[in-house]
Amino acid sequence: MKKLLVTLFLASFAAGLSAQAPPQAGSGHFFPLRGTQKIIFGSSNLTYHTSGPVIPVAKVVDIFWGPSFSDPTSPDFQYAQTLIAFRNQFGTTPEYNVITQYSQNLGSGTQFIQLSNLGTGTADWFDSSTPPANVTDANVQAEVQRYLTTHTVDYSTIYEVFLPRTSFSSNGGRTSCGGTSVGYCAYHNFFGSGATAVKYSVEPYPSCSGCQVSGWTDVQNQEHFVCHETREAVTDQQLNAWFDRSGSEADDKCAWSPTPFIGTGGYGYQYEWSNAAKACVKTR
User: Fold this and answer.
1) CA distance 44 to 243
2) In this structure, are strands 29-31 and 186-191 parallel, antiparallel, or unpaired?
3) SS3 of residue 143 by DSSP
4) Is 20 within the bounds of a domain?
5) Cα-Cα-Cα-Cα dihedral sign, residues 203, 85, 103, 250
6) What is the sign of the dihedral through the CA atoms of 80, 31, 199 and 47?
7) Does residue 255 sit within a domain?
8) Which residues of the chain have pLDDT under 50?
9) N or C: less crowded end of the chain, CB within 10 Å?
10) pLDDT (tens digit per residue) in 38-82
11) Does any domain span residue 2?
């Protein structure tokens, strides 16, 4: 009898996995704390969900929110400059090249993701206003909208909002490092819909052990999260394109394991899922 119950349970469990649930639509898609990532089942490849858009030729705008990022006497000044330098080279690296195997088909033929200079968008923004201690998702959307009052919106751009150590992000009852219910390190999301959806990521300061690689600097840890969120926003910009049967996006499948690494340019990266290799890989 016990063996029968176990068999029925496993069959039910497998059936549940086969239903392809989209990644946390609405609230964003989150980078898990180290040691809390969900189990990824074997070599289950990503599936393209019909009509889900990717960003074939992406750009990234960095928004540094807080006076410390533009203060040459603050460590955050060099932190920001290093993140800009990382962004400027990332889109043409072998680490980014892994995602060029993924594509979209929106009725005008197949379009593959391409290598691109992510820094060719509108200007980055150093917003010297002080963000709230608790930065909600609504606050981040409002910050992106403030930027867009003086810059032309580009729907192939990901607007990446960086928070200082003195603030934390909150979303859906959970917080990033610095909050009281730490449950994630970063996330990507969008507002609007279809061809005019605005894509963004939230990049809190990696100030807690659950968001750190042993021996890495703060900025290397942040590069790691930028790598993850940028590639996921490109391959699954509206949470309805590329993900696997458990709802995991490309970088989720390799989050924290294998161990993130120092790669091209001496910056921090993580492994990426490759459908072609059916495995987590460093580069392609």
Assistant:
1) 10
2) antiparallel
3) helix
4) no
5) negative
6) positive
7) yes
8) 1-21, 41
9) N
10) 555 456 999 999 879 999 999 999 999 999 999 999 999 999 999
11) no
DSSP alpha helix (H) spans, the chain: 2-18, 75-90, 94-97, 137-148, 218-235
Give the Cα separation of 95 and 77 in Å (integer).
Answer: 26
Decide: residue 269, CB within 10 A, 0-12 exposed, 13-18 middle, 19+ buried: buried
The residue whose two tokens read 């458990």 is 246
In DSSP notation, 144-172 reads HHHHHTTS---TTEEEEEE--TT-EEEET
For residue 245, the enclosing domain spans: 27-281
For residue 10, is it within any domain?
Answer: no
- This prediction has a pTM of 0.91
* pLDDT tens column, 16-40: 333 444 555 557 899 999 987 655 5
Report d(CA 99, CA 57) in Å as an integer.
12
Helix 218-235 and helix 75-90, axial crossing angle in degrees, nearest 10: 40
Separation between Cα atoms, residue 110 and residue 72, nearest integer Å: 46
Report the domain count for the chain: 1
Task: Tell me how far apart the alpha carbons of residues 60 and 75 are, in angstroms, rounded to a whole number.
Answer: 23
